Amino acid sequence: MPAFALALALGAIGCGGGGVAKDATVSAYADAPLCAGARRQLADEGGRAGSVRVRLVCLQSARDGARLDLASVGANARRATEDSASVGYIEVPSRPSFSRPILESAGVAWISSNSGAAGMARLLHAIRAADSGSLRGSVREALHETG
Fold first, then answer.
1. pLDDT digits over 57-75, tens only?
2. Most-buried pick from 23, 70, 75, 143 (CB within 10 A)?
3. Are 79 and 72 in contact (CB under 8 A)?
4. Does any domain span residue 14?
5. Does some domain include residue 7?
6. Phi, psi (rounded to 5 degrees) for 92
7. 49 within domain boundaries
8. Which residues contact residue 135 at a Cβ distance below 8 angstroms, ignoring those fewer than 6 apart?
9. How confident is the model at residue 90 (pLDDT cuts 50, 70, 90)?
């Protein structure tokens, strides 16, 4: 979808009118170890959540062996926040989560999951449940409601 058409589709979403524009395309970001499962789940769902197309973006690993590279964590989170079509970020749980504050400040839903398939299923469910207002905000709210 050309950038201009995507901007129009996302603009229609933000107007609070009839909900998500038919055939809009959104982005879901996934931590490297979760990508295979997330990709399978998305394929099982036909690459869609209702009428919304979902594009999976697999991030580079932020781990160097057992060590977490905080610069990579931040770069991955910023990449997701800079994508205007981004609605969710699926990440392997870590304590504390260094990406969560970056994502939440931009309104991108953060999903902590040990399974890429389970994380993607939650995100797709939340996208289907989003029916009006800001898609990012609606997805985030739907995820909070389901825990």
1. 999 988 877 888 899 999 9
2. 143
3. no
4. no
5. no
6. -65, 135
7. yes
8. 10, 13, 14, 20, 24, 26, 87, 127
9. very high
Give the C-alpha distances (Å, rounded to integers) separating 54 from 24, 28, 69, 120, 124: 9, 7, 28, 10, 8
Q: Give yes or no for a contact between 20 and 130, defined as CB atoms under 8 angstroms apart.
A: yes
Is there a domain that residue 130 lies in?
yes
Residue 108: give its domain's CATH number. 3.40.50.2300
Beta-carbon contacts of 133 under 8 Å, excluding residues fewer than 6 positions away, are: 13, 14, 16
Q: Which two tokens stand for residue 78?
A: 């910023």
From CA 136, how far away is CA 103, in angstroms rounded? 11
Phi, psi at residue 102, to the nearest 5°?
A: -65, -45
**Span 21-32, mean pLDDT?**
87
Task: Give the chain's domain count.
Answer: 1
Q: What CA–CA distance (Å, rounded) separates 108 from 88?
A: 5
DSSP string, 38-89: HHHHHHHTTTEETTEEEEEEEPPP-EETTEE-HHHHHHHHHHHHH-TTEEEE
With DSSP H G I counted as helix, E B as strand and the rest as coil, what are the percentages for the chain, rounded to 5? 50, 20, 30
Between residues 135 and 56, which one has the greater pLDDT?
56
